[in-house]
Write a structure and sequence with these properties.
The structure holds two protein chains of two kinds. Chain A is mainly alpha-helical. Chain A has a three-stranded parallel sheet, covered by helices on one side. Chain A has two domains: about 110 residues, Fumarate Reductase Iron-sulfur Protein, Chain B, domain 2; about 120 residues, no CATH class. Chain A is built from 13 helices and three strands. Chain A is about 55% helix and about 5% strand. By secondary structure, chain B is mostly helical. Chain B has a single domain, classed as Fumarate Reductase Cytochrome B subunit, CATH 1.20.950. Chain B is about 80% helix and about 0% strand. Chain B contains twelve helices and no strands. In chain B, helix 6 packs across helix 8 and helix 10 packs across helix 11. Chain B starts with a helix and ends in a 5-residue tail after the last helix. Classes of the chains: A mainly alpha, B mainly alpha. The interface between A and B is large, with 36 and 44 residues.
Amino acid sequence: MSQEIMEFLKPRMGARFRMWLNICAHCGLCANTCHYYTANDNDPKMIPSYKVRFLKEILRKKGKVDKDYLQRVYDTVYYECNMCRRCTLYCPFAIDIALMISLLRALLFSQGIAPEGLVKAIENYKEFGNQMAVTDEDWVETVKWCEEEMAEELEGLKIPIDKKGAKMLYTVNAREPMFYPQDMMEVAKIFHVAGEDYTYCSKPGWDDTNLSMFCGDLKTSRMIVENTFKRADELEVEQVAITE
Amino acid sequence: MDFFSFVEGPLLWLAFLIFIIGSLIRAAMFLSVSTKKDKIIYQHFSWKYVFATLVRWILPLNKDLAKNPVFSILGYIFHICLIIVPIWYASHITLWEESRFEWSWSSIPDEMADWMTLIFLAIVIFFLLRRIFSADIRLISTFSDYLLLIVTALPFLTGYFLTHGTLDSIGFLGDNMQLLHMLSAELMLILIPFTKLSHYILFFFSRGASGVEFGRRGYSI
């Protein structure tokens, strides 16, 4: 395992990571900027600078750590930091703790350690292009159904799909067609009344969530974003808008 | 050559060379590795954000002043004393004038150097006590954090003893204070490139790199 860990880390240890691990003065200014710290009665274990000690330790041990150790890393990087970057705003050296936490999450993911829900979502992204495993047909059907429902309320309401040259491409959270189509209907109503020139796209790229980012799975992350950009290019829109 | 001549001659040269060349290597290493592995900095590079973030954090114009005023202000005073006293202390300048370089510049009054040294040492003691007694800081402190704080303080402490003859009555210390003063300063210079003290130069790269990204995203820098 140690070899795999080092093989994963080495190419990813950029100049910034090395510098940050080196210059952190352990001054503690990041402590009270962290909401995990303040919400846990100022628990010293929640100090951002302390949480990234794992990265330094793993490098020092040349990746020779056991499963138990990685489990402890997991508990910290998933449940004691949500990578909000607030500590960086107060760090005199602007050390990006969140980026190092993200690297640790990516390392764990490479070793098969990640929250189940996220792993499932990543599989869905890869297969269907969205986190909820909605097929292209189901997606288009849902949009059309929303249109029919709303047209009863507002006459002449249309929900454009793949409208070339529209001003903006509107994207949703994949949970909306799955569980909350009423959200899409409300939006359709607003767009209709406002006379907004928008369109959905029928092919992958319409889901604007990017859960793979939370595992540090940058490859899938990139694929998701690229899908949306591809659709935007094809449809020649000026803007991409994302759901609330 | 006796030990004293060695310390005031070759060892001083060595210390300065390690300090200067070591620092340059640290900077060069950051630049060469970052151009390959941290391309995002250069893809979005903007002098505007780099300049803005450096000015805000070199001068006390940043968020920490409101969040942690005591520690921030002491931090600034600590660094001001640390930089000004060794460079502008009159006796040090005299040594530069007598050296082969014959460099000379104006000095600060001796009394001011005295006060700055005492203030500096007081802040060091505060930092040390904070590391020992604050549960937060104790947890994140490593051996080198304690060591480097003491290494940084020693040249000032020995310098004060030397100029005031405080410990002259104590045999060995009284006879060798100048030696100890030079040795401690040389130790600090040598350690700078290899430890967190290298932040004196990497500060600019770290702030710059994060400033570029945070500025572009509209965060406070």
